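Title: Request for sanity check on Acyltransferase prediction

Description:
We are preparing a figure and want to confirm that the structure record we downloaded matches what your pipeline produces today. Could someone re-run it with the sequence below and paste the raw C-alpha cells into this thread? We only need the C-alpha cell string, no images.
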Amino acid sequence: MTIRSRHSRVAGKPVAAPRTFGRIIGLDGARGLSCLGVAIAHIAGHYSPQASAETKIGLVGTTLIFFYVLSGFLLFLPYIRGLYEDRDTARLPNTKNFVVHRIARILPGYLAIFLLVNFVFQVSYVQNASLQPPGTDAGTGMITDPWQLAANLTLTQSYVPKFFQTGINPAWSLTLEYAFYASLPLLGLLMYALLRRTRLSPTRIAIIPPLLLIVLGFVAKLFVPALIAHFGITSDVLLNWGPNWVAVFLRSFLANADNFAFGMLAAVVIVLMEKHLLREGLSRRVRLYSTIALLPTAVAFVGAFLVAGGQYQTSAVAIGAALLILIMVAPLARGQDSGIARVLDTAPMRFVGKVSLSAYLWHFPVLLLLGRWGLMAGDTVGGMVRNLVVALAATMAISTVTYYLVERPAIQITRKYRHRWAS
C-alpha cells in the first residue's frame, strides 16, 4: 500500500492533501530484508555452527518476527479505516475477497515449491529436522506416508508432533500466518458489531482486538513452564523444534498471537494520524518517541531471555518491529517524506521483497541441495561467508522463477475476482 500525498501550504506550514491508499513505500523492502535475515541465520547455522556462534550472526534470524508484525499491521488497516465511516453505513471489509486473496498469496507458491522439493529434488525432511546433525542432509528424502503428505500439503504439519518440522521445515510459520488470517474476520465481526450496537468510539473499538491477542499470547506463555515440567523435556532445541507437544504449542497461534497484535496497534496509530485524531504535537513526535522506545525494548529483549526463560523474547522483538514500522511509516501518514522508506523502496530492495515468499520457502531446500552436491564450505568465518554468497544467489535465482511462473499469475487471477465481487 503506497501512501501518496500532495502538499499545499496554510500560513506557511505544509498541509497534506487527501491521500490515496495503495502500497506503503518501504515495507516491501523491509519484508525482503527480514527474509534475508532468516536465510542467513539458517545457512550459517547449518554449515558453520561454530563460526555462527562466534559471530552471533544467528540473531538476524529473529527478523522472522517482523513478518508477523507486518501482517498484523497491513491486514488490520482496512478494518480500522472502515470504523471511522458513518456508523450506519460502515461495513466490514469483504471477507470473501480477504479469504481468496490470502489463499492465493501463499498456497499456490507453497504447493509448487513443496511438490518440487519433495518429488523432484527429494530433499523434504521426512524426519524432524531438529533431530538431524548440522551440515548434512540427513533425514531428508521424499515423503510418501499419505498422512504426512496430506499434512504438509495442507500446512497442518505443525499441529501434529510426529510431523512437526518435516517437509519444508521453515513452512511452520505459514501455518501460524493462516491461523492469524482465520482470526482476523472474526475480530472484524466483533468490532463492527460493537460499532453498530454500542456508543464506544471507533478508537476504543479498534484497540480491543490487539489487546485481546496480547492477553491471549501472554497468558498462553504462562503455561510453558508447566508444559515443560509435564513432558520432562530439558533440551532447548527439542523444546522449540522437537517432535513434541511443547514445541507444537510454542509455535502455535495461542503462544504467538501477541506478535501480530503489536503490528495491529501500530496500524491504529497510523490511522489516527491519517484521520488527524492525534494532537498535532503528538502526531509530529510519533517517529521520535518510537525511536526513543527502541532502547528499553532492547533491554526488555535481553531481560526476557535471561530472566523469563525466553518465552517472552519474541514479544520484545515484536514490539521493536512495530516501533520500526512506525519510524518508517509515521512521516508518510502525515504526507511527509521518509528517508528510510525511500531507501527500502529502491528497486533491488523492492525486488527482494517481491520474491520473499519464494525465497523464504526455497532457501532451506537450496542449502541442503548445495551441500548434497558438495558445493558448501566448512565451519570457518571465511567458509560461512562463501556459503552465504553461494546459497543466497542460488535461492534468489530459483525464487525469481517460481514468483513469475506461479505466485504472480495466482495473484493476478485473484484480483480479477476481487474486482468482480467488489462491483
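Thanks, this matches our download. The radius of gyration is 22 Å.
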